[in-house]
Design a protein that fits this description.
There is one protein chain. The chain has 79 residues and is mostly helical. The protein has one domain. 72% of the residues lie in helices and 0% in strands. It contains four helices and no strands.
Length: 79
């Protein structure tokens, strides 16, 4: 299920649901979501990216900011 399908599913459920309890629970769940970088998966991703970056620096695989931006522009066809 794609993110758009998940969003549509949730919206459909809220629109067709008349239970205050369900709507309150959904609201509480959404209100108390942690930012992605505070979840275990987010912390793990950050740590893996840092390790990869440190390894690249140790191996001398560094490029300038301008080179990085140029690669990104080319990759996204933003010339």
């Amino acid at each position: 299920m794609t993110l758009l399908e998940k969003k549509r599913f949730i919206i459909d459920k809220v629109e067709t649901c008349f239970s205050d309890e369900v709507i309150s629970k959904l609201n509480d769940d959404v209100s108390h979501l942690k930012p992605w970088d505070e979840t275990e998966e987010g912390k793990d991703l950050i740590n893996r990216l840092l390790e990869k970056s440190q390894e690249q620096v140790r191996n001398g695989e560094v490029i300038s900011f301008d080179e990085a931006m140029s690669k990104i522009r080319n990759k996204l066809a933003l010339k």
